[in-house]
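The freezer alarm interrupted the setup, so I double-checked each line after restarting. Inputs confirmed:
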Amino acid sequence: MGTAPTTRDEVPADVIGLSDLVVTTESSDPVVILRGVSLTVRAGELVGLVGESGSGKSTVALAIADLLPEGVVRASGSVRVNGEALDALPAKRRGALLGRKVALVLQDPSASLNPVRRIGPQMIEVLRFHFGVSRAEALRLAADRLREVGIDDPGRVLASYPDMLSGGMKQRVVIAMGLLAGPEVVIADEPTTALDVRVQASVLDLLVRLNSEKDVAILLVSHNIVAVGEYCDRVIVMYAGTIVESLAAADLMASARHPYTRALIGSVPSLETPTQAELPTIPGSPPDPGDVLAGCPFEPRCPLARARCATELPRRIALDESHTVACWAVEEELAQHPVRLEPSC
Amino acid sequence: MTTTTTVRARGSTMQWARFLLIRLVRAVVVMVVLVVVTFAMVRLVPGDPAQRILGMNADPVALAATRERLGLDAAWLTQFADYVNGVLTFDFGTSFQTGETVSKIIADRVWPTLQAALLAIVLVAVGGLLVGLWAGVVTERRRPVTEATFSGITGVIGILPPYLLGTLLVWLFAVQLQWLPVAGSGSLAKAILPAMALGLAPMAMLARVVRVETLTVLGQDYMRLARSKHLPGIRLFTDHLLPNVLGPVLPILGALSATLIGGSVVIERVFARPGLGEELAQGVQVGDFPVVQGLVIFLGGVVVLTSFIADVLAAIIDPRVRRAVVR
Ligand SMILES: Nc1ncnc2c1ncn2[C@@H]1O[C@H](COP(=O)(O)OP(=O)(O)O)[C@@H](O)[C@H]1O
Ligand code: SF4
Ligand SMILES: [Mg+2]
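Predicted 3D structure, all chains:
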């Protein structure tokens, strides 16, 4: 299969491509944070990245934006944005590419805006410096974007300082600010976690609407796999710095195979769960970042673990063109159906 | 939209008005306390100024006449009223000893004191900020060694008393290297050593505060988001890093300036600068009330003005400062 050359019209280009990304701390005894992460986000796609806290989701987000914190480095692997490998670009062009094409939305909107500057000037920076738009024109465009994200009185908001706005408003401002450059992709790192429960859904709805209306790809980082399954096109599941499963969101409930993915689905409270009922949690806890892992990182907690799991890292295999999984149990089960088994990238 | 903008503009004008009012009231209260305390203090010092002026064997009649001439025979309350009246019109009276007006003494002697103090303030502000910002940016990356070196050096400099630093600096720059004049007043060059003696320790302390503040700001999400815009580095610095560091640092600088002005008065003697300190010391020795009162109030006024300016600057740069005060 796959011998016929694909044309551009058929398959949307990748706006983000990570291949075998290894991220470690920068020290004589480095701690491995990402253990070879490969993923793609295609133009206009809405991809959810889920996993427990500490699994490396934010590190993936920051690696794409070339904003890994000081002391944390890309040890190997590559990051491509809009088809261009970041490493191959001189710093200036890399900055221009990322400043224009990648927008970032972070977890806590109250910390995301510069508290000593009014919203207007900080919103229009990208337009002023990457596109040379005049101040007046940039402010007009900013007001338009603010209306698009559901802010009715952009004049007031543009003249406000961040702490005069509510959390939901601030997150809308951050999203509108990201949209001003006309990015290819918005990386939203748990954009609703810090928000009031009542506005969480409206901010998620906003992202979904922007994705379809403006055809901007979104990488939505979340720890709620069920919500991500509802909102996204595709779901990528991370555990301890590795991607354990990736599949179409529509298949999530019925076809997810990895024991960790299944456990995540089982641990999310649903509306039907009585509040007093004990939540099923995943027994055990993720490995510490410093642990040296020879085999599958999920092995200590896995109900299906077998002998080789403790010593051999499972390969990522493709179950079909949209579904990959890294698990020995799944692979062994499929060994009886070799037709469908093929190693994946 | 125009209406909301106007409403907002009016709201922020009100906020400014209230902020300035609160800060002015504070300044006035400090000055009132200073006026009362200096008045009481000079009079609580034992000894009779008339006696000191005329000598131990003076004739009682002459003493009485002198007391009357100096206004010392009047009731304290009357003296106080006269004194306050004078202060309000910038008339601090005349020296018991020389008959010169205190205003003239201040005008003649203020420059050596103020020159060294201002130079020290500039040194603390510019040096402390530059060193602190630099150290913050650098130690964000290579923490352990640079951090330890920085803390060690600033820690040692920060605790050196001005007279010791002064002696060291004179030895180094004036005697050994002969780059700067040892002592005296007049040229700006002669103010450099006293300013360094005064300012180096506070500069080191401020640099430490600025470094911590810089690291805090650099770790904030808004800096991460600002970096994600990949702006020119200078804009990142001037629009995002610097104003957020300045907000909390400026009031500290204001407080340090107060000690620098006081310190300048003291350190004059070490550097043989004929400033207000010399006059003040003499005035205290002979009980020259008007001179002591006038100088203390003048210096207090300069200190209050300096910290007022620092507070207003902080409020201009950081809206949270003025809102915190108004609330
Ligand atoms: N600046 C850092 N220095 C050292 N370790 C870090 C740093 N940032 C994150 N880590 C480690 O990397 C792992 C993944 O963190 P993160 O990407 O924030 O996970 P998530 O977003 O999924 O919660 C965590 O174990 C964390 O301890
Ligand atoms: S590889 Fe083994 S331990 Fe890991 S998830 Fe699969 S069965 Fe469990
Ligand atoms: Mg995170």
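Quick read of the result. Confidence is low (pLDDT under 50) at residues 1-8, 273-279 of chain A.
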